[in-house]
Amino acid sequence: xxxxxxxxxxxxxxxxxxxxxxxxxxxxxxxxxxxxxxxxxxxxxxxxxxxxxxxxxxxxxxxxxxxxxxxxxxxxxxxxxxxxxxxxxxxxxxxxxxxxxxxxxxxxxxxxxxxxxxxxxxxxxxxxxxxxxxxxxxxxxxxxxxxxxxxxxxxxxxxxxxxxxxxxxxxxxxxxxxxxxxxxxxxxxxxxxxxxxxxxxxxxxxxxxxxxxxxxxxxxxxxxxxxxxxxxxxxxxxxxxxxxxxxxxxxxxxxxxxxxxxxxxxxxxxxxxxxxxxxxxxxxxxxxxxxxxxxxxxxxxxxxxxxxxxxxxxxxxxxxxxxxxxxxxxxxxxxxxxxxxxxxxxxxxxxxxxxxxxxxxxxxxxxxxxxxxxxxxxxxxxxxxxxxxxxxxxxxxxxxxxxxxxxxxxxxxxxxxxxxxxxxxxxxxxxxxxxxxxxxxxxxxxxxxxxxxxxxxxxxxxxxxxxxxxxxxxxxxxxxxxxxxxxxxxxxxxxxxxxxxxxxxxx
Length: 507
Fold this sequence. Notes:
The protein has 507 residues and is of the alpha/beta class. Among the domains are: 1-177, no CATH class; 217-367, no CATH class. It contains 13 helices and 16 strands. The protein has helices spanning 14-18, 120-123, 147-173, 187-198, 215-230, 249-263, 300-311, 358-367, 369-372, 382-386, 404-418, 420-423, 450-460, and strands at 30-38, 41-42, 56-57, 60-71, 77-87, 93-97, 126-130, 179-185, 205-209, 390-396, 427-432, 447-448, 466-470, 479-482, 487-490, 502-505. Helix 5 (215-230) packs antiparallel against helix 7 and helix 5 (215-230) packs antiparallel against helix 8.
C-alpha cells in the first residue's frame, strides 16, 4: 500500500460535493452535469482493462461534466467529457487514468490499471478520466473528420481535463494536489507519452504501458504479417487465402517448442518464460524439413514466412520501416487476441492478396504521421526530467498490435538524445514475457504494481530496479520484472516459482 502524505484529508460531506455543480474556471468553458456522493462498494466492471483482482471502492464524490461543448462538422455535437472521483479520505495525490482504443466514452475514474491489489481511488488518490472529446463506440474513427475533435483525441483533451480536474481537486479540498501522476496502456500509453512530450510540467510521474505509438507503422507491421502468411495459406473456393491456416496448430506449437529449446534457458530456468528476449537468437530454419513435410517440421515456405513476419516490413531498398517482433511464447497464441503468427489482423478486400507493395504502404504511413500524432518520434524530454519527472515504460513481449521492439527502440533513443549515462535516473523500461496487449497470455506474469514503484521513485527517490509480477496463468508463482536491459535470472538456488530466487542480470 502506498504511504499517505502526512495525514489524509478528512471526509468531505455531500453538501460540499453537490456544491461542485456550480464550479467554474476562468478561461475554460466547463459545464458540470452532476456532482454526487457515491457510497463505498464494488469496483465497476471495465471490460477494456487488464485482468485485476476483485476490488472495492471507497466513498467518494463523483463529478461529471463537459469542456468546450460545441457543434462540429456536419452538425455533430462534440465536447470533452470527463469524470473526476474525489475520495472522502484523500491522500493529497492526483492521478489521470488513460483511455483505450479510440476512446469515445468516459470510463469509471478509479485508477485500477497496474496498481496492484488496490485501485488508486481506494488508496486515496483523486482520479480523472475523459472521452478525449467525442462520443463513439468501438473503433469509430468518424470524429477525425472534425479538426478540433482530432486534436482533442491526439493530445488537447487530456491536457484540458488535467487543468480542470486539478482545479476541482483544489476547490473540493481547499488545497491543490501535492503530486500528480498519469497511468495508461495502449491509447492511454500514447497519451502518457504525449503528456511527457507536450506538457512536461503537468505530471510528476508517468506510466506508459504498450503505448499505441506510430499506429500507421504498427498497422503496416500487421498487414505485412498477414501478407506473408497469405502467400503460403490455402485458398477457399473463391480463391481467398485462409490466413490463419498458413500454419496449423501443430506448426505453431512446433515453433514455440523450438523457441523454448533455444531461449528458455537463457534466464537460468526452463519454465516457459523467456526473460531475455533481446538475447534470444532463435532461428526457425532449425525446424525446416529435410524431406517430406510432417508434423515434426516446417516446410521451407513456412520457415520463410515465419522469418518474414518476425523481421517486420522493409522497403525494396532494404530500409526497415517497422522493427518487427521479439520471439516470445505468445506469438503463436490463438486464444483471445491472437499472436502475430496466428494473424491478429486479416485485411479485407484487395489487401488479402499474396503481395503487398511495402514501398507504397510505407509512404502512406509516413504521410499519415501528422494526422495520428507521431508520438514515437519526439525524444527531447529535457524539461520533463529537468523538473524531476519520472517515466516508466512497460510492454508485453508478445503484444501483436504494437511491437515491444518499437518501445525498446524509443527508449534507447531517449538515452541517446537525453544522455545515456543519466537515462536510468528518470526513466525505466520493463518487458513482460508472454504478455499480450496490455495484459493476458497463456503463460505470463501480467499482474504488477507500477503505481507504487512510481510514487516511491517520485517521492522517495527509490528507483525501481525490479517489480514483482504474478498472473492468473501462473497460480502460486511470482517473478521479478527487471529494468531493461537487465533481465530476471535464476540464482541457481531457492524455489524456482518465487521471485526471491531471481536476480536482475545485465545481458
